[in-house]
Amino acid sequence: MSYSDYGDNDPIYGDDLADEDRESRPRLMLMGLRRSGKSSIQRVVFHKMSPTETLFLESTSKINKDNIHSFIDFQVWDFPGQMDFFDPTFDTTAIFGEVGALVFVIDSQDDYMEALAKLHATVVAAYRVNPSITFEVFIHKVDGLSEDYKIDTQRDIQQTTTDELADAGLENVQLAFYLTSIYDHSIFEAFSKVIQKLIPQLPTLENLLNILCANSGIEKAFLFDVISKIYIATDSSPVDSQSYEICSDMIDDGHNDYESSNGRQGNNHQQISGNDSSSQAVASISSRAGSLNNQPTQQTSGNHEAFSVIKMGNGTVLYLREVNKYLALICLLRAETFEKQGLIDYNVQCFKEAMDQVFELKRAERTRREMENQLMQQQQQQQQQQQHNGMYGHG
Ligand SMILES: Nc1nc2c(ncn2[C@@H]2O[C@H](COP(=O)(O)OP(=O)(O)OP(=O)(O)O)[C@@H](O)[C@H]2O)c(=O)[nH]1
Ligand SMILES: [Mg+2]
């Protein structure tokens, strides 16, 4: 995955959208009041900024467009806090027209009444232009709240928002609510769920993971984007946050100082990068300090793909294998099941081949569309040339 094009010099609002922005790649917008935490979220999730560094972020003055090139290409737009829908340069049709998801960030440590009013105005404006947007509300900075207070806050925000939308005749608009913080896994988990809604292949991926789990005795399987630590799919058994955290701790992109900055320590922090330089799927083992009596063993497969196994003291095995340069498969299974490693390796290989097919089909489809466009352009040019010749009596 590469993260490029961060911070174009565009005007504040989207009255001058580049062609690339108009492409059909899914777009995800981060909106919310000033200092609610939008830029911090974008930097921590997609640019590996450590949470404490976000203290020094400056306020955003114009839309920052971030092109994410990964298993799917998408864009993240980070908006300035105070948006004015009545500003003549705020072109709601251009801005909301092609959005996949609108993430509205609310600072839960602050008085949130103004934020709720803004959320309401934003949903109403966006829904009018584009009813297919998915609305995602991040009740953010919950690291400062007690467990009870978190639940009360979520209930209050959810209730007020849905009541007000119903009063405005928009009871059918679906909003999803998440409790998030950049200081723990919650922001990655929430982003995983948001991104998954934008992946057209999701049902296929879930199906493949279900088959893999059923045939191999695997308890839980995640398909992770190796750089962002977002999981793009999992089998359909319920996700518990602890399994997700253990699995996501197994990934490290080699530059990642997130864990140390989080105050967590990996006492078995060993890089086992595959030597394939094209691959960014570098796995490292970072087991929780002592508590689980882990016995890491690691191997790299002959073709330099990242591969690692951690046997934990509680009889659970963590199994990681690189799927392609963007994705890694991480599975949780019982130690007894892992005795049949040959079978698991074989099934995982089949899974990888099926994944290749899913993404190969997508590539083929894109190439076909590009060729069609080219052909159409050529034909148009020819037609214009013929008209031109006819007008001036040539040929
Ligand atoms: N405690 C806590 N602080 C956070 C969290 N996320 C962001 N912050 C802090 O909130 C402050 C504002 O963050 P920004 O990311 O600049 O906020 P923004 O929404 O982009 O603000 P504008 O660009 O002005 O709209 C920074 O000091 C961050 O460190 C979080 O999860 N928990
Ligand atoms: Mg900002």
Automatic annotation (TrEMBL):
Residues 377-387 have a biased composition (Low complexity). The keyword Electron transport does not apply. It catalyses: GTP + H2O = GDP + phosphate + H(+). Residues 259-276 have a biased composition (Polar residues). InterPro entries: Gtr1_RagA, P-loop_NTPase, RagC/D. It comes from the Eukaryota. Belongs to the GTR/RAG GTP-binding protein family. GTPase involved in activation of the TORC1 signaling pathway, which promotes growth and represses autophagy in nutrient-rich conditions. This is GTP-binding protein. It comes from Lobosporangium transversale.
